[in-house]
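Lab notebook, bench 4. We co-purified these components, and the gel suggests they stay together. Before we commit to crystallization screens, I want a quick structural picture of the whole thing.
Request: model the full complex, all chains together.
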Amino acid sequence: MSDKSEQKKKYIIETAREVFMEKGFKTVTMKDIVERCNISRGGLYLYYESTAQIFLEVLKLESQEADDVFSGNISEDATAAEILLFFLNEQKKELLRKSNTLTKAIYEFYFSEERPKKTNVIKRQFDEGVKIVENLIRVGVENGEFVCDDYKGTARNIFYVLEGLKITAQTMGVTAAMVDAEIAYIMQNLGIELA
Amino acid sequence: MSDKSEQKKKYIIETAREVFMEKGFKTVTMKDIVERCNISRGGLYLYYESTAQIFLEVLKLESQEADDVFSGNISEDATAAEILLFFLNEQKKELLRKSNTLTKAIYEFYFSEERPKKTNVIKRQFDEGVKIVENLIRVGVENGEFVCDDYKGTARNIFYVLEGLKITAQTMGVTAAMVDAEIAYIMQNLGIELA
Amino acid sequence: MSDKSEQKKKYIIETAREVFMEKGFKTVTMKDIVERCNISRGGLYLYYESTAQIFLEVLKLESQEADDVFSGNISEDATAAEILLFFLNEQKKELLRKSNTLTKAIYEFYFSEERPKKTNVIKRQFDEGVKIVENLIRVGVENGEFVCDDYKGTARNIFYVLEGLKITAQTMGVTAAMVDAEIAYIMQNLGIELA
Amino acid sequence: MSDKSEQKKKYIIETAREVFMEKGFKTVTMKDIVERCNISRGGLYLYYESTAQIFLEVLKLESQEADDVFSGNISEDATAAEILLFFLNEQKKELLRKSNTLTKAIYEFYFSEERPKKTNVIKRQFDEGVKIVENLIRVGVENGEFVCDDYKGTARNIFYVLEGLKITAQTMGVTAAMVDAEIAYIMQNLGIELA
DNA sequence: CATGAATGAGAGTTCATTCAT
DNA sequence: GATGAATGAACTCTCATTCAT
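Here is the predicted assembly.
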């Protein structure tokens, strides 16, 4: 595979990403992608053979870029509470975005029964997120910042709430205030009273 | 609208419901419903003009029947903790069911942007559920069964966790043990240690 | 299946038959048939789902009509030699026809490996033809018209020659004189000298 | 045309030959050949511009190699009957082969009307074969091996039977026993009783 | 010469929707 | 009311053929 070919594949993935953000997964057709990419009908098939395959590539790219949620933008000497709050606010931003988010597409994609559930990208992100937050809570407790005696349980609870908020945002709608209320509840549970 | 006509409409809705349970929402076609109902192509259009319209009717029927989750099967003198646990276990059963559930279809349906979010059925169910659980917690606290100082916040947290579990079940898969862990965490948070 | 529907199916088969006669089997598309029938793209699929299925129907119709090759147009008191000669000349006419014959289409159709060879229409016709000719020869010998001591072998030889002539007509071309020569040889073998 | 170019053309023809043996003629695409040859899409077009052109080259090569059916492997002092039997058995082997034969492809190729019938390769082979067998019969009769008074007619009959068997093998299926029966009939007709 | 990316025509197929009966 | 035949739009996918490099 030449360099130019790689370039093109990346271009297709990035362009398709926009389409998935706009339309979700199920209703996106190869034709939609072809048209957005300004390539020929047959041209797309040179690189990918289905919307599912393209979507998986989009997810792969996505997860590469997403791996640094915690790593970037956090000052060296931030407290556990600050870091957790930062993370929750990032999630808030993400879930309040109407467009420019793949959330809907991801859910739609994994709704298909044929998809293997165990090894999928979102599961991996969920599990890794839980681990990171679990550690964060442990550090916070050791610091004396947090009060908590079930690190793992609390971390998992946080992630299910986040999943709940995400799906709620897509289906019933969610306001900033509603998300803030949940964040406040979570923090309060850890013994942190937000202003 | 004659009685026979009402009969027929109900028959269509009940039959379509099965189809939605099997295939979700997006992939169900008018043809699918026509075939399952054993009626004529044109016949269906006499009553309904789109799968969305039919699905809304299915939901309407559903929510009529679902309103008695708390009312049925609970003995008069059950404690608040017993009632809450009963409710959570009902939810567990629901979300572990692979087929015979409309969950996927409902999510898929509300993913379409065109749907008005504010007034939709699931939002109503969510909000009403929160209110009931909030009251239940209040009663429990007054009883001395529960320890909690944010009734509404806790009730909401519970419902977001349930939403999170539901969507997780559909996309990443969830085991009975995983649900039990979340239920235990919720109860523990209220000061109830499960065996 | 209503009467009108039957009518339509028959119309499609008869129209498709013309197409197969012109183009053989392999190159005929559903689109070709749709266009010749002056029906809509989707319309054809209401009745048949592939060119193969349509072709099989064409063959079925064909073999119904072909079953009276021997029965029609033969006077009651014809001799065995006359009947045989009549049959061979019918075959000659058939194989000299360039268009207006399904021969090419039939061969092309049965070239596909997926087709079950044992039970196919042309095999049945071949086998039945052999039996009839075998009996004819027997009668001729008993009459004293023919000289032959292997009825079945001779009948089979005749049919392989006819198959050979048919395929030769399609691939290398064949003239009336060439067919006549083969007919003469066959008759001579039975002790009949043609003028 | 350089030597290297000749080399390449030959390579293409030999490789394409395999493809035609597997798939016949009609369904073979330029893409098929390109892929089997491991050359570039455009590369093939430098040498040949259609599958028909390639197939004609395959046939040319074929007929060069086939010309020695009678010449090879026959001992100097073989009798006419032995030679004829050898030839017929070679044909039997050929027609019982399912794969590794161009028969189907050749028939399919010549089914296209556009092909000039008179000058084609198989006609030449047919005609030459008839001549050779005719001479063989003459020799056999002069030897006293055969009984026959129409050399040409008998030779032609043999070749039409062979054609008939070939096409039958492709369309209805043929067993070794069935071919043996025809060979026996042919030999018997010449006065030779096979064991 | 050789490559292989790119194009676009065209076949297959499925359905929402209409409409004469 | 009810039927189901008919239409046509939309999508998927495959190749022959070209052309810049």
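Chain D has a mean pLDDT of 90. Worth comparing against the SEC data before the next meeting. The longest helix of chain D spans residues 121-143.
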